[in-house]
Specification:
The complex is a heterodimer of chains A (335) and B (287).
Chain A (H helix, E strand, L loop, with lengths): L2 H29 L4 H6 L5 H10 L6 H13 L13 H36 L4 H15 L2 H15 L22 H7 L3 H38 L2 H8 L4 H13 L1 H25 L4 H11 L2 H29 L6
Chain B lengths: L1 H9 L1 H24 L1 H4 L30 H37 L1 H16 L2 H12 L3 H28 L2 H8 L4 H38 L10 H12 L5 H32 L7
Helix pairs in contact in B: 2-4, 2-11, 4-5, 4-7, 4-9, 4-11, 5-7, 6-7, 7-9, 9-10, 9-11, 10-11
Classes of the chains: A mainly alpha (335), B mainly alpha (287).
Chain lengths: 335, 287
């Protein structure tokens, strides 16, 4: 199978995957609670009010027609109206999504940089004190919940040292006009270096909190994979033909050892999206996590459903992108 | 000294034993504090005291929270909620996940393929967000919370156990049993289970750790165990309100409890895994 046909096949698989996930979300949100309005409001509201709400959200229709409305709504960008803000759910979600995406991607990049360099260093210094200390720390890092890391960061950098901002995305006085709602891109588009720096300093702590959590796992995987690669025949061949050790490692070993890390990155995105909800709460960042948690406390059913739908779709999309990228790194996959 | 330390650590067996023992010690300590909370803690976890936000002192060894409640009591009693919900959640998801995974992987067939496709799709969904979604539709109480975390964990266990079952199925000794006409039930009881059991024990230990993370995370967001009941994550949510004023003790002690519990169960799992792997030679199935 050529690479093109593999990529096409992978893209085609993503479609039923998304449909299955949407069905799962629909089942959990509509069928498990029996009546979503009662699940949200309990018995505190009158029957007339509950009936009016059900009608407004289309929950009084038969289940199959609710399901069709839900799936068609996603493809036409109609996720209903927010009960609280009276704005379309899709526009609420779309303005929060870039915030979450920016933070998650930054967290991913940091975790790969930290984890990969530690993992490779451990593999090269195998069974030394350094190796054991890093392995211990990477297991410990994975065991500290993201919200604990976040709170510790706030305390250390905000309360004790006063060096970094611990709330929000910008200094509210200099917030740039929003274009894409990606803080870094917006400040660059408006050509404002001060704001760029400001948004970056706001992003450092939340992104680092996410990264520390995941870097432990990246370090463990890359260590194991690097050790395995260094034992391969082609590494011995590269050394035997007299290549410098740095060339052997950077050009031959690293390229192959990095493959399991790439696989991990696909899962990483989905996992970090979950951790991100906690980080956003701690640092008061107005992303998808915040939007969804506020919607839970405001009992805004359609916003919750819209956010979860978006989470599901983005997890599949990123998983597919990672799989496709993988074929470029490892030609064996498509063969 | 350095050389001796390196020699010591290089002996993997000693390292994994060390992990096993320290993990077990952490787990036993926390379980003891939770189980014997009424005897260990001097104060009731919900009794409102007169000293608000008192720092750790000889009377309240971990200080008091914003309502004057003793933090040591809340950490001990909080462990009851966190540990028991996590344990129940782990048992449910491992039982369902391993049963479906082992049956599907060993027997195979169309049903297995359908279940596997569903599980793959569910696996793509962020586990934590799935637990969140189920927790909010079921409503916040301890039983619903354990169901939410359990259901969200099933796809992960299903995939691991199914791949173990698939790999065992192709081993020569199983093929030999099939050829000499051993019944499926005999093979499952005498070969598959003993082979998979060590992997499942490791998964159970790490599963409790994951469940504690999920439960305290949900508590932190305010959709887990509801106050005034003590739970580590829920308590952190309230401790955080005073953290930026410099009052660290309501945040730090529940955090330490969560960390020790998660770290303890993970170390126990890692230690067991290393020891099983050593004993079994190449036969151990979890990577």
């Amino acid at each position: 199978m050529s690479r093109t046909s593999y990529v096409i096949a992978r893209l085609i698989i993503a479609v039923p995957m998304v449909l299955l996930l949407l069905t799962l979300v629909f089942v959990v949100m509509h069928i498990i609670p029996g009546d979503p309005v009662r699940a949200m409001y309990g018995t505190r509201v009158s029957e007339e009010f509950a009936r009016a709400l059900r009608h407004e959200m289309g929950l009084d229709k038969p289940l199959y027609s609710q399901y069709i409305d839900y799936v068609l709504g996603i493809f036409t960008g109609n996720l209903g109206m927010s009960m609280w803000s009276k704005r379309p759910v899709i526009s609420e979600v779309l303005s929060a999504f870039p915030v979450t995406l920016e933070l998650t991607i930054l967290g991913m990049i940091l975790s790969v940089i930290i984890g990969l360099s530690l993992g490779v260093a451990c593999a090269l210094k195998r069974d030394t004190v350094f190796d054991h200390v890093v392995r211990f720390l990477s297991l410990a890092g994975y065991c500290v919940p993201v919200f604990v890391t976040g709170l510790l960061e706030q305390f250390i950098f905000g309360v004790v040292l006063h060096v970094l901002p611990v709330q929000g995305r910008f200094n509210p006085l200099t917030a740039p006009p929003l274009v894409t709602n990606f803080a870094i891109i917006d400040s660059l588009l408006t050509g404002n270096i001060m704001v760029f720096w400001d948004s970056l300093t706001h992003l450092v702590l939340p992104a680092l909190g996410l990264a520390i959590w995941w870097a432990g796992l990246v370090a463990r995987v890359s260590r194991a994979s690097m050790i395995e690669t260094l034992g391969e025949d082609y590494i011995m061949a590269a050394r035997a033909k007299g290549l410098a050790e740095t060339a052997v490692i950077s050009r031959h070993a690293l390229k192959n050892a990095i493959l399991p890390v790439v696989t991990l990155t696909g899962i990483c995105f989905a996992v970090l999206l979950g951790g991100e909800m906690l980080t956003e709460t701690i640092f008061s960042i107005p992303g998808m996590g915040r939007l969804m948690i506020n919607a839970v406390f405001r009992r805004d059913f359609l916003v919750i459903q819209g956010c979860i739908t978006f989470y599901a779709i983005s997890a599949v999309v990123v998983g597919t992108i990672v799989d496709v990228l993988y074929t470029f790194l490892d030609p064996r996959v498509s063969n | 000294m350095r050389r001796r330390l390196e020699n010591f650590l290089a002996e993997h067996r000693k390292l994994s034993l060390a992990m096993l023992f320290s993990g077990t010690a952490m787990v036993i300590t926390l379980t003891f504090l939770a189980a014997f909370a009424p005897y260990v803690a001097r104060y009731s976890p919900v009794e409102i005291g007169s000293t608000l936000l008192g720092p750790p002192n000889s009377d309240h060894i971990l200080g008091t929270d914003a309502l004057g409640r003793d933090i040591f009591s809340r950490v001990c009693y909080g462990g009851r909620a966190s540990l028991s919900v996590a344990f129940v959640a782990m048992i449910i998801s491992i039982t369902v996940g391993s049963f479906l995974g082992a049956a599907g992987g060993y027997i195979g067939g169309k049903l297995d393929r359908v279940v596997a496709v569903f599980m793959d799709a569910a696996y793509a969904f962020p586990t934590y967000i799935m637990a969140f979604m189920i927790a909010i539709v079921l409503g916040p109480d301890a039983i619903n919370l354990s169901f939410a975390v359990a259901i969200a964990g099933i796809p992960g266990y299903f995939r691991i156990v199914r791949s173990i079952a698939l790999s065992i199925k192709e081993r020569t000794f199983i093929e030999a049993e099939v050829i000499i006409g051993a019944p499926t039930k005999y093979i499952v009881i005498h070969h598959i289970l003993p082979y998979a059991i060590s992997s499942i024990i490791v998964l159970m230990s790490m599963g409790v750790a994951d469940a504690i993370l999920a439960i305290s995370g949900l508590g932190f967001l305010g959709i887990g165990i509801q106050p005034p009941s003590p739970e580590w994550g829920t308590d952190l949510r309230w401790g955080r309100e005073v953290l930026l004023n410099g009052q660290w003790w309501p945040t730090v002690f529940p955090s330490i409890a969560i960390f020790l519990a998660v770290f303890g169960f993970n170390m126990l799992g890692e230690g067991l895994s290393a020891i099983f792997r050593e004993q079994a030679g190449g036969r151990f199935a979890v990577p």
